[in-house]
Design a protein that fits this description.
- The complex is a heterodimer.
- Chain A is an all-beta fold.
- Helices cover 0% and strands 53% of the residues of chain A.
- Chain A contains no helices and twelve strands.
- In chain A, the strands form three sheets. In chain A, strands 2, 5, 6, 10, 11 and 12 form a six-stranded mixed sheet that branches. Chain A has a four-stranded antiparallel sheet with strand order 3-9-8-7, with no helix packed on it. Chain A has a two-stranded antiparallel sheet with strand order 1-4.
- The radius of gyration of chain A is 14 Å and the shape is globular.
- Chain B contains no helices and eleven strands.
- Classes of the chains: A mainly beta, B mainly beta.
- At the A-B interface, strand 11 of A face strand 4, strand 5, strand 9 and strand 10 of B.
Amino acid sequence: AQKITQTQPGMFVQEKEAVTLDCTYDTSDPSYGLFWYKQPSSGEMIFLIYQGSYDQQNATEGRYSLNFQKARKSANLVISASQLGDSAMYFCAMREGGTGGFKTIFGAGTRLFVKA
Amino acid sequence: GAVVSQHPSRVICKSGTSVKIECRSLDFQATTMFWYRQFPKQSLMLMATSNEGSKATYEQGVEKDKFLINHASLTLSTLTVTSAHPEDSSFYICSAGAGPGQETQYFGPGTRLLVL
């Protein structure tokens, strides 16, 4: 069974600083995808970044980068130059391909607070 | 980018009534849609996978007779909460698969259900 673990219920970061949100995963499927989503108080799920299991390089999207450590099964999200608007819930998610049917499983989430 | 809509955005109903939530992919066809439920301060829990033209696949512990899913077209899936009770009050989010292998998911804005 696949599993996503986010061990940080809450994180604080000073505005303009970088922050790392942890995520580990467990799967026996060699083909999978890892996602990070942001969920502000409005509830919408905002896609941030994607990393495929066969991707050789770490994914980057603007201020977001994914530190993919395949052997350790970790996919930490790094947010550089934090902004007040980054305060939200952040979910790590994994999707298995093929037999997984592309369904996505989410971690418990980390609430990020950006301080001015 | 691809857009997924949900209707209604919020609904309040009396205990014992049924509520239908619609999920539409606005500018792409989605053979697969997913329904999630999110309780306050918790993560998204996958309820079921909705397949166009066939029966939905429910996750373990989700009552298929309670949560009726109909995916009648490539752009519309509906979730009906039958005989709703206060414990069904939650945030319901759908997502639609896009891309050649339906590997990318786009999330709807969610529906807040309150059962009195």
